[in-house]
Each structure stands twice: as structure tokens, then as C-alpha cells.
Amino acid sequence: MSQFDWDEARHGLGVEAMDGVHREFLALARALEDCPSSLFAERLAELAHHTEAHFAAEEASMRRTNCPTLSEHVAEHGRLLADLRRFSTAVQRGRPAMARAFLEDGLAAWFANHLATMDAALAAHLKTRQGGAEADRGEDD
Ligand SMILES: [Fe+2]
Ligand SMILES: [Fe+2]
Q: Which residues contact 77 (CB under 8 A, 6 or more apart)?
């Protein structure tokens, strides 16, 4: 049992595209948690890349639908990405302790809080617009 296991009741937002990305995010975080030192830098970079795409997709969806929480949500994304980049750089320089500590005690709580506030607000916004289908669309505006 990992703090990064998917739990439908806690993590499911009912918007398929978002839930799919969030499952992947948790799976990558979990893989990192169990990861030997030799693979840690590579897997952390993988999580950071995935997170960039995850956040970019949410931000595109917010812009497309004029989501009122856009600026706050983008700012929260920016803070986590800055942390991940900082940790990645430290790991590449042979200092994994800060990243390991954040994984053990920080990332899961950040995710749960972000999900319950920013992502839940986005999911609710998308559902009121299109019954949740908006999130599954491509760039079509
Ligand atoms: Fe998200
Ligand atoms: Fe988000």
C-alpha cells in the first residue's frame, strides 16, 4: 500500500481525461518511491515531463472554456513545477535527499490538496459546460 495508490473515492473527479492523467501521475510517483538510486534521476525527469504535459493540458482546457479559477490554478502548477525542476537539478548533481524527502512527505499531500481544490473546481466547471466532454476535446476553438 503506497500513499500514491489510486483511490477512486479520493481521487476520481468524474472527468475521464483528468482522471486518466492523474492515475498516470500517481503511478509515476509510486515508481519513483520504490526506485533504486541508479534510476532515480531518470524517473524523476519522467515525472517532471509528465507533470508539465498534465498541467499544460489542464491550462489549455481552462483557457478554452474561460474557467474563472485559471490564474490561481496556473500559479499553483507553476510552484510545483519549479520545485520539481529544482529537485531534478539537485539529483543530477548527486544530491537526491531533498527530492526523496519531498516524495516521502510532501508530494502526496500536495496532490490531494490540489485535487480537492483547483482540479475539483476545474472538473465542476467542465461538467457544467459540457457534461464533462469538454476535457476530452482537442484544440478546436
Ligand atoms: Fe491535475
Ligand atoms: Fe491542476
A: 55, 58, 59
